[in-house]
Target: Heat shock protein GrpE
Amino acid sequence: MHSFTLYSLESAVIIPMFPTDLNFVGEQAMANEETLEENQDEIVTEGEIVTDDNSPEEALEASPEAENDALSVEELTQRLATAEKKAIDNWDQLLRTKAEMENIRRRGQKDLENAHKFALDKFISEMLGVKDSLEMGIEASQQDNADIESLCEGSKMTLSMLSNVFEKFNVIELNPMGEKFNADHHQAMSMQPNKKFEPNTVMGVMQKGYLLNDRLIRPAMVIVTKASE
Model:
């Protein structure tokens, strides 16, 4: 058995050959050549370049995207100008607010200082009447015809004025006579046995105490009873 090798332009086909099949081989070779020529024609057709008469500048001018880009730039420029104006307005508002807050802080600090300085303003105004009454009582007692009863009555009136001032400013008097001893408000000066009172009871007040808005200003100095030995 013999074999022949047939070569085409791009490939080689090896076909086993018999002496009786020479006609078949010739026909097969011709068919391969025709197929190769058709493939080359298709390759050339697919590789053709289609030209366009329009230049790149004309295509850019006619493109709708270019028009949209131009509009976008104009719109962005307008928005930028608006944003800059708004930023300037906000900065001006910030400066005004900062200045106003600084003025409020200064006024508050000044008011606080005045509150510390003049916290007793109203109290002193009320106490001036008490002082005037005391001065009038002293002046009356120095007269040759001073009346003891009148002086005593004037002193009672002055004490009443002072009590009204204390009440007005929520100053409470502590006079715990006969009450149970309270270490928070009372200060025991001594302890004595006394059958009239139960143990640990205030049997005498040496000095009254005072509260200001429920805060102890001065404890009451008291004598406390104790159990008999």
